Amino acid sequence: MELYLQFGYGMMEHCRHLIEAWGGGTAVLSPRDLNADQLLRLSTGLTDLPGGQVLLDPQFYVPHSDHERLCEHEYWPDNYSTNAFWQGPELAKLIGCLAELNESLATAAFILPGMLAISINDDWLETQRAVLEEAAATGGSKPRYATIALGADAAKDQSQVALLLERSEKWDAAGYYLVCEHPNGQYLVDDPNWLANVLDLAAGFRLRGAKVIIGYCNHQMLAAACAKTDAICSGTWMNVRSFPPDKFRQAFEEETRQRATWYYCPQALSEYKIPYLDIAHRMRLLNRMEPMGRFRNEYSAPLFSGPQPSAVGFTEQSAFRHYLHCLRIQCEEASAASFDDAVTAHEASLNAAEALLATLSAAGIRGQTRDFTDIVDVNRAALVVLTSTRAPLLRRKWATL
After folding, report:
1. What is the pLDDT of residue 84?
2. What is the pLDDT of residues 247-288, one digit of tens each?
3. Which residues pair with 29 in a beta bridge?
4. Fewer CB within 10 Å, N or C, the chain?
5. Is 127 helix (H, G, I), strand (E, B) or coil?
């Protein structure tokens, strides 16, 4: 499984730096955060790097959006009419404009527009079919990926997910770009049904031979490797590590105003504010939180150089790059030669994290809203469900997917 960079506010230099440092990588560009000139400039800069690729998320989740930067793009409709849009020339115009934009940006594939499904019903399913049909008629050589954007209630409903899988069997899509709203605005989701359904969707699409990219992820979605997901996407701020639909409306408050800096401890699957690293330093546990082996990196190294961590000036930039560096390695290591190996590897990471978290918590070192302690069992439960429903087919087809 790969890590793609989910573009968000202030990420231009992060994308350039990391893709160059990694010797390749893919960034999913955001029209909400980039105007037309910036899209072209950034895509050119990234695709000129060795191994650099871009995709474009059209972000048509809320067609009535009044977000100024998003609506100024040429492909965005001037007047959106719910009933007429998906059956007339406006849809053809949208697909045609996006196809041209993807060509100009040299994207690796064409991510098609898709509305947010508050409920997976006949009307929403018909819009999905209409988009795919219009894209096929438009032609072009790029693989076409259908956007599946689900509200939290839809993603939690097993019957709605089953309906989606049933009705999409004949869709002409080379891949799926899956984005799911987190329940109750949570960063780490504590509902095992939500996670089990997301994994089931990913596995169902993959078993058809389609590519699956899950957007707006954090490290909880490392479990997606067990569904043979091709890539998860993540970025800097929380609103590109989860999917808040409100960010595509004008009134959304940018979370960049919250300036706390977090350190990601990959072996604990948790993030900590720097004062808690000071506690770890005092309690002689800081070495247990230090990245080891491949996870060692220049971004977080000063935190473990000897002085009190809060004294070394660990910056937001370093925190973001450390997080994405570690998550990329975790994605690589989550990939496995078989379904059972993937499940065993994820279970081992959960067990190791649980043991370390117990030690840290007993010493007063906690990750607050980003602590994985209560999420370990959520991921375990989702793996049990995936194994019970998809294991035979995934075992049989794993090597060919």
Report:
1. 83
2. 888 655 555 455 789 999 999 999 999 999 999 999 999 999
3. 56
4. C
5. helix
Q: Do 17 and 52 touch, CB atoms closer than 8 A?
A: no
CA-based nearest residue to 180, from 205, 202, 211: 202
And the tokens for 329? Answer: 């390695």
- State the Cα–Cα distance between residues 342 and 334, nearest whole angstrom: 6
* Cβ atoms of 116 and 245 closer than 8 Å: yes
pLDDT digits (tens, 9 = 90+) for 342-370: 999 999 999 999 999 999 999 999 999 99
Residue type, 351: N
Q: What does each C-alpha distance from 362 to 183, 285, 328, 334, 356 come to in angstroms?
A: 29, 11, 30, 29, 10
Would you state the structure tokens that stand for residue 277, as one six-digit string? 């690293």
144 in helix, strand or coil?
Answer: strand
Rounded distance between C-alpha atoms, residue 252 and residue 244, angstroms:
10
Beta bridge partners of 3: 232
Residue 385: how many CA atoms within 13 Å on its side-chain side?
A: 20
Q: Cα–Cα distance between 287 and 261 in angstroms, integer?
A: 20
